[in-house]
Amino acid sequence: MSRPHVRLLGQGIRYLTTLRGGGSAFPGLVMERLHPGFVAEELAKLPHGVVLISGTNGKTTTTKMAVQLLRSQGYKVFTNRTGSNFVRGVAAALLGEMSLTGRLDADVAVLELDEAHAVHFVKQVKPRHALLLNVMRDQLDRFGEIDTTRRMLAQIAAATTGTVVLNREDPRIVSLAEHVPEGTQTRWFGLSAPLRPMFPSDDDMRSAGGPDAEADHEAELAPRPAADVELTSFEANRVRLTVGGEPVETTVELYGVYNMYNAAAALAVALAVAGPDADRAALVDELSRVTPAFGRGETITVGGHPLQLLLVKNPAGFRLSLASARPGDYATMVAINDEYADGRDVSWLWDVDFHSLRSGGVDVVAGTRAWDMALRLDYDEVAVREVVPDLGDALHRFVAGAGDRPMRVFCTYTSMLELRRELSRVAEVAEI
């Protein structure tokens, strides 16, 4: 079968799977088997190359931000907007965006890939730019030791040909600078000193006050690389940044203080791609127009009341989500699954401090690990009204019992997907 015929077959399969409401990566699997070089060949045609975004936390939201920022600069951007982290997911996304004649109307690709799949990707496609966000103890049952994740990201840095943008506040990310090849630029994003305690690295969370505290203090005093973009301060949704040494202000209309930091990362990589021609003022202004990625603070109106879906995967992310609003203002549900995409090991829940939920309690705990979550909350003396493992039943009870309160649901990845499907039956839910 000729390559054009293989592509048309792949596009046909993708169309059929879309009609059935899922299977986004399956057409890509077909292309992997029948035309293994498909992704590399198509992405090599893009005049501004590939931007690869990876790291433990914040990939989906930061990718969405970076795409919107670059589009505001006039770039035609291809992205894997479903967040499929497989190379075959990129192939499926390509099939969906290409015309029947095989033309992709784009001049740059911005791709989110998880650490393991990114390693395979860069063997086929050398990214022109890479943004490496952080290394946290997320899904250690998949990757083993945390330094395994760091080594994966090092391979991405080593394969990048133009610019590697690094988080200067994460020691493991900082160490990746030694892997950046000669001729490739290294750029940085970071935090002002007053904000650093609010966004701890994995090492900060593990050793504060412990035997390594003195070494941590010495590291804190060590000089940091100058950041192209620094998050200086924020109040509510108002954000202050330093960009190229100049102070700027904007708003970020996304739930969660961690998204302020993601905004700095996205701005840093957009500046790297746009180069000296970047319109900084327009980029900063565009940040105020970014809407949430699905499940990442996404708000869905149910029965006239807002319901927010908040993806939680590890202690740092859960802690920052909890800190983003006063618990008493919301009806609260927690949905914890332990499927492969969530991570089988949910012991990380014991590293989260849930004391802030005492004032309002938790209305419903749901998911395959509902009883584990309820036990964890009990240890922090957080009242739980109901434990309902079935997500559909739990959601119905939660909405019915919320009254006039706005609702928020802290959920792992697969529970978030199931909740969105359930919500789509009673509310308008954006397609992904």
TrEMBL record:
Domain of life: Bacteria
First-tier enzyme category under EC: ligase
Name of the protein: Lipid II isoglutaminyl synthase (glutamine-hydrolyzing) subunit MurT
HAMAP family in UniProt: Lipid_II_synth_MurT (MF_02214)
EC numbers for this chain: 6.3.5.13
Taxonomic lineage: Bacteria, Bacillati, Actinomycetota, Actinomycetes, Micrococcales
Catalysed conversion reaction: beta-D-GlcNAc-(1->4)-Mur2Ac(oyl-L-Ala-gamma-D-Glu-L-Lys-D-Ala-D-Ala)-di-trans,octa-cis-undecaprenyl diphosphate + L-glutamine + ATP + H2O = beta-D-GlcNAc-(1->4)-Mur2Ac(oyl-L-Ala-D-isoglutaminyl-L-Lys-D-Ala-D-Ala)-di-trans,octa-cis-undecaprenyl diphosphate + L-glutamate + ADP + phosphate + H(+); beta-D-GlcNAc-(1->4)-Mur2Ac(oyl-L-Ala-gamma-D-O-P-Glu-L-Lys-D-Ala-D-Ala)-di-trans,octa-cis-undecaprenyl diphosphate + NH4(+) = beta-D-GlcNAc-(1->4)-Mur2Ac(oyl-L-Ala-D-isoglutaminyl-L-Lys-D-Ala-D-Ala)-di-trans,octa-cis-undecaprenyl diphosphate + phosphate + H(+); beta-D-GlcNAc-(1->4)-Mur2Ac(oyl-L-Ala-gamma-D-Glu-L-Lys-D-Ala-D-Ala)-di-trans,octa-cis-undecaprenyl diphosphate + ATP = beta-D-GlcNAc-(1->4)-Mur2Ac(oyl-L-Ala-gamma-D-O-P-Glu-L-Lys-D-Ala-D-Ala)-di-trans,octa-cis-undecaprenyl diphosphate + ADP
Gene Ontology MF terms in the entry: ligase activity
